[in-house]
Amino acid sequence: MPEEVVLIKFGGSLITNKSKVCSERIDIIDKLAKICVNITSLNKKLIIVHGAGSFGHIKAKELKIFEGKIISIYEKQILGIEKIRSDMLSLNEKIIDMMLKYKLKPETYIPHLEGKGSGMNYVFSNKIDEIIKSNKIPVIYGDVVDIDGDKEFGILSGDDICEILCKRLKISHVIFAIDGADGIIDNPNSKSGGKLIKQFSSHHPVVVNKLEFDVTGGMNLKIKRGVNCFRQGSRVSIINGNNTEMILKAVMGVEYLGTEFI
Ligand code: IP8
Fold it and tell me: Structure pTM?
C-alpha cells in the first residue's frame, strides 16, 4: 500500500446545485474524478468522502432530522429518512459511475447500513478497514444514521467522517474541496467579501458566513474538524473545488491557491 494517504472531502455544495432538490453538478464531479486519476498516478492512496448538498440538507432541515425523533412529526420523519437515504445513494452512484468511467476502482461504504451513532459518536464497522486494506478507493458520505436511545436517528456529516478517519488511520493530507470561496475568508460578511486566509492557525478567530444553508454547521464545522485533523498530524487544506488544478498542486506540495492549516 502506498505510504501517503490523501483524503479528499467533496463538499455537498460543490457537487450539487444547492437550491434545487437532488440536482448534481456533473461537470464538477467529472473534473474531480479526473483529479483522482492524477493523484493515484502519483502513487498515493486516496480516500473520498462526499457531502449531501441538495440531496440531503433540504429535506433534513425541513424534517429537523438533526434533532432526532420528534413525536408530532415522527411518521413524516421516518418517510423522509428513507427518501434522504435513497437520494444519498443515488448521489453516491453518480460519483462512483464517474470514477469507473476513468477506470478508478471505488468502493462505497454506506454509513447507515454499516455503523451507528451521529456526529463524532459514529462507530464504523470493520467493512471500512476491509475497503482501506484492499486496492480500492473507499468512498464514504454524509448520511442519516441510527443512534441508540430515544433520539433514534441523527446526522453524520462528511466533515465528521474526516475527523473520525484521521483518528483511526494515518492520513497524510486532508483536503476539503469547497464551493464559493478559495479557502477560509477572514470576513465573508463584509462588503468587499473578505480576504483569503492562506495560512490558518487554529488560534485564528473565524467569522462564519451567515448565508450558509447546511444543517450540519457549514464552514464552522469544517474548520473545527480541520483543526482536529491537523492536531492528529495530517496536513489540512481547504481549496475551491471548482479549481481542481489547485487540489493537485496541494497534493504535490507546490504552491496553491487555498488555505493551509499551520
Ligand atoms: O453534507 C450531511 O453531510 P454533509 C448529511 O457532509 C445529510 O454535512 C444527509 C444531511
Answer: 0.94
